[in-house]
C-alpha cells in the first residue's frame, strides 16, 4: 500500500474545508457531507471554528483510494486559510508530497492563495490546482488562470472542459476528447518527451500522460482541474490526478529521521506530535540510535525506561514499525524536542529552556495582558497558557514576576481572541484581560546630527568631560553605537549603557529605534573616575533625549486588508475604512455583483474591522488581513 501526504491550501472561504468534506464522503469515510454553515464538518470541530465558519487548526484524515494504476492511502492535510494561522501552513510544507491549491472561480487568485503558492514553489512541492465553485460561476475562470500564470511565471495547463451534454471532461480519464494542443502543452516542458513523441508515429505510448506525471514534480508543469466541492463535480477526478503525478521526494534528515508537523493534546493520549517518517524504520532502531547519540548528562535514564512511543492515528494502537511517509503519532517524551516544522531531536545541555519558551520566528506586534481574578489561581492559568503555547508555537507567553501579570503574544487579533477563548473553556475560574495591545516604537527621522555632550556639577567644579559624537539614523529598527576613538573599557561601558537607557523612552513615551551613535572623540577630565562616569551618563541621557522631540516619529505595524463584498454594501464599507484612516489602494469589479477592495491602515485602526464588516454586510462580507512591522513595512501614527 502506497501512502501519499496531500495538503489542501487556499485563501479563506475558497472551499478548502468543503473540498475535504467531499473527499471524505467520496472515499466512504463519512455517510453524509457536513457543511460549514451547519457546523458539522469533520475538519472544523473546535467551537470557535463552528461559530466563525473558518478553519483554525490543521486536521489530518487518512482515506483509501483505488485507481486504475494502483491503490493508495491518501493522508489529507486540511490547513487553515486565515493569515493569523499561517505558521501552521509553513510548518507542514517540508512534509507535503503534493499540494492541492483551491482557487475560487469568478475571481483572480486572492492574497492568501498567492502567498501559499509562492511558499510551495520555494519548498518545491508539486502543485495541482482546482478551480472551485463552477456550479455558481459557470465558465467564468479566465481571470483566475491569467493571474495564476502571472504568479507562476508560466502558463498553467487547463485539463478540463465542458462537453456538449454540459458535463465536464477531465484529461486523465478522457484525453482523446481534448485538442492536440493540450497534449503538446503537457510535453513542451521536456525536450526529450517531445523528441520521443516524434519518434513514435504509431502513437503506442501516450507521452502527454508521462509529461503530466513528471512535470509537476520538476516544477515545470502546473495542471488545473475545475469543478465544485459542494456538488462533488470533479472531486474524484482531482484525486486521481493528484495520485497520478509524482510526489516530492523526501529530504534526508540528520539525526532522527522524523519530521514534526503538528502538536496536539488529547484526554486519552496526553501530549503528542504528528510526525512524518523520512525512512522505513523500527522503534528498536530508533531506541538504539537514542542510546548511541543522546547526552546522558541531561536525562540519564529516559530511553532505557521509556524509549519512543508511537501510536497509529487511525486505531490509536501502539506500533513498532514505521513506514516512510505514513503519518504516526508520537507521545511526548521529556528527552525529545518536537517543534513543528523541524526534525525531531534529542534534548541536550544546550536546551536548558523548554521548547515552549522558544521565541516566535516572526515577533508578533499583538499582545494581551492577563490577570487572574484571584492571585491563587495564577498557577492554574499559567498551566493553561503553557498548554496553548505548546500546541501552537505561534503564541508566546511572558510571565511578569514583578507585577504578577501574564502577557500573551499572538499573530493577530483573531489569533489572540481565539487563544483567550480556548484557555477559558470548561472552567468557572475568572480571568481578567486587557484589550489587545499593539506594539509601537519611535523611529528616528532621516538625520545626521553632530553633538557636543558635557555635564558639570558641584558649582561647575566637576565635569563629565567633553564627548563629541554624531547621532544618525540607521536603515532598520536597530540601535547601534560605534567608537572611532580608543577609550578605557569603563568609559565605553558607561557610554553604551547610558545610550541604551536614553532610547527607552522617547518624546511619545515609546522606545526609540533606528539610530546610531558614533563617538568621535572624548576628553576625559582628571579626578575621581566614579564621579566622571556618573556625570558622563547624565550628559548623554540629557543630550540624546534633547534631540528626540523634533527628530522622531511614532510608528506601528501596518495592515493590508483585502475585502470581498457585495457591491450594494461597498459604500458603507468604504465609509468605515475612511473613519479608520485607511488608504484605499484599489477597487475592482468581481463577478456576481461583488467588489474586490484593497486598502491599508495602521493595525491599531483596524482592530474589530472583521466583526464590523460582518455586521455591515449581514454576514456575507469577507476580509483577509496581513499585518507586519518591519523597517520597510510600517505605519506612521503621529507627527
Automatic annotation (TrEMBL):
Coiled coil: none annotated. Pfam families: EFG_C, EFG_III, GTP_EFTU. GO terms for molecular function: GTP binding; GTPase activity. Transmembrane segments: none annotated. Keywords: GTP-binding, Nucleotide-binding, Protein biosynthesis. SUPFAM superfamilies: EF-G C-terminal domain-like, P-loop containing nucleoside triphosphate hydrolases. The keyword DNA repair does not apply. This is GTP-binding domain protein. Residues 1-251 form the Tr-type G domain. The keyword Transport does not apply. GO terms for biological process: ribosome disassembly; translation.
